[in-house]
Write a structure and sequence with these properties.
There is one protein chain. Helix content is 35%, strand content 14%. The protein is of the alpha/beta class. It has 2 domains: 162 residues, Ribosomal Protein L4, Chain: A (3-Layer(aba) Sandwich); 41 residues, no CATH class. α2 crosses α3 and α4 crosses α5.
Length: 217
């Protein structure tokens, strides 16, 4: 797949770039995407939820009435879960929601997400650039010239760029990330994927490294 390369002012450079079909044109694996996104969401959960059980609620342990002969159900004390203010039965406890996935499955999920973006024509390639100063105004102007004002934008760079990060961190719908840190959730969450030209090779190195090794062996 070939795409035109734009500059950060929204103009065409007259150059074309070829997206690797082994990454941007594979048959998407929806189940791999589901598992990867599920893991991402689970790993972000704090798991600090907690409710008090019967032995943790403050209150007297005195038996409120005799066991038999009252014509009503028996109960031992005021901390009974059936009473208002009593302990909760089988309530939530602090736990770790994270789980592991194979690296190959996560890689397939990322390539599937990238393939979906390419199929929907939601990938824009920019030539490498950097702002002179870290001002939000510069980033807003660039987004406007690229006609991405109302969209969630994920900007992929080759290396960490402090000026780009500082210029975009006040924008709610914009996220700047380096190519090695790409994840399936961020790709799918963005409406438009903006990739700097220099980071394309880095994306290929990350996702095709195992493939090249296996083919040589």
């Amino acid at each position: 797949m070939e795409l035109e390369v734009y500059n950060f002012k929204g103009g065409k450079t007259g150059r074309m770039v070829n997206l690797n079909d082994g990454i941007f044109a594979i048959e998407p694996n929806d189940h791999a995407i589901y598992l990867d996104v599920k893991q991402h969401m689970a790993n972000k959960r704090q798991g600090t939820h907690k409710s008090k059980e019967r032995n943790e609620v403050e209150g007297s342990t005195r038996k409120l009435k005799r066991q038999k002969g009252t014509g009503t159900a028996r109960f031992g004390g005021i901390k009974n879960p059936l009473f208002r203010g009593g302990g909760r039965v089988f309530g939530p406890k602090p736990r770790d929601y994270s789980f592991k996935l194979n690296k190959k499955l996560k890689k397939i999920a990322r390539m599937s997400a990238l393939s979906y973006k390419a199929t929907d024509n939601n990938i824009l390639v920019l030539e490498d650039f950097s702002f002179e100063t870290h001002k939000t105004k510069n980033f807003v102007e660039m987004i406007a010239k690229l006609n991405l004002n109302e969209k969630k934008v994920l900007l992929v760079t080759k290396e960490p760029d402090a000026k780009l990060v500082l210029s975009s961190r006040n924008l709610q719908k914009v996220k700047v990330i380096t190519a090695p840190m790409l994840c399936t959730y961020d790709i799918l969450n963005a409406q438009s994927l903006v990739i700097l030209e220099g980071s394309l090779q880095e994306i290929e190195n990350v996702h095709l490294a195992d493939t090249v090794t296996e083919s040589k062996s």
